[in-house]
Amino acid sequence: MESKKYQVFISSTYIDLIEERRKVMDALLMADCIPAGMEAFVATDDEQFNVIKKVIDLCDYYILVIGRRYGSINPSTNQSYTEMEYEYAKSKGIPVLVFAIDTTITLPSNKIETDTNRIEKLTQFREKALNNRLASIWTDSGDLAGKVAIAIMQAKREIKRPGWQRAVDYDEASLRKQIMELTEKNQELENSLNAAEEKILELTSYNDLAFEDCNYTIGYTYYIRIGTSLSGVPRHGKKSSNKTLALTKIFEKIATEMMGVSITEDRITTIICHLIDSTQRIYLDDEQIPKKILNQLKELHLVKSTRSDERKALYWGLTTKGQKVRNEMILIKSK
Fold first, then answer.
1. Which among 287, 282, 286 is positioned nearest to 224, based on CA atoms?
2. 198 against 108, higher pLDDT
3. What are phi and psi of 319, to 5 degrees?
């Protein structure tokens, strides 16, 4: 007997399908699944809908039951919350099972949509949902329960999902060992990939790029105090100058800063400014200078850039070659 259980979200309008939802939940429990209906939590705004999305995220399958009512409409999307749940589940790649009522069945008036606009929206939603591979028509609650039971068993066989399993069903020691082995293997593969990429870059690199004989003459501006106004306010004057820096000196400073970490271009600009004059705040005449320096170092395969997924920012770090060159510069060797 399979110990894994699958969580299934049940989506539908509520008041008109109370009995049908109960039957669906019973069918899921019989199929050893965990129903995740939101009967006690009906979305009425975007904030509450965000709570429902979090529940859907935790589900393995999504069941949509369509009756003859469209449901409450979200004013910002002009869709019913049921249709929004359906669209969200589809967008997250959660397998969707659709069950739509036979429209020829006679129902009480309180279970049938009467508003023309809602009827049109329901029709379009129904047609869209029935295009799913796992879709069927039901006639009554008993027929619906039977079709749900068959469909969920088929889905479990054909569409593998993570499911839920009790922690005691796992050997924790074995899992820890597997994780450590996979982590080590992943690191080995990453190192091999980085080495291969750097080798490819070296084979396709320029042969005439300057490093030890490369110098940058950098123009900059700073402000000095030239007196005081009659009211006692300090007066400042603008001064311009330039300084020539060796690329090796620039690299030594930023490479030392990159000791096991990557840094931003702004931080690199600050380091360059401090090399020019550490006693006062200066402004580079050419703001592209740090980019030009980084590009030179990148083409020399001393630095590489990576983009942070969280902050979407560009960070600069050392290549394997860059680390070796830095160590040659700053390590103290025995005589």
1. 282
2. 108
3. -80, 175
